[in-house]
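Write out the 3D structure for:
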Amino acid sequence: MRLQEQMENGNWVDAESRRERYIQMAIDYAREHGENTDIEARLAAGEEVRIIPNYWYAVIRETQKAQKPEKIETVLCDCGHRVRRESVMNTSTGTSCPDCYDRMSY
């Protein structure tokens, strides 16, 4: 089992090197909120455990294997910049990145 943390973008990344720190943070959070403080058991049961308040993504979990990093598909726009496929914008003079959109939209 490997510990993972959730990033702001929703992806999960390996956090095994910070295990002790995150377990302690989860215990502290659980105590403050009257939850079960047996974090290791909760993680082993497949539960996602919160480590700090106010951030939806501030959780940890156990996983059977390391997740493959998400492949990011990029496209070369007519403006000359390479951006993620979902960020490409269509203008009257071709495709552009968000930074060049105003310049290329005559």
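The first strand starts at residue 2 and ends at 6.
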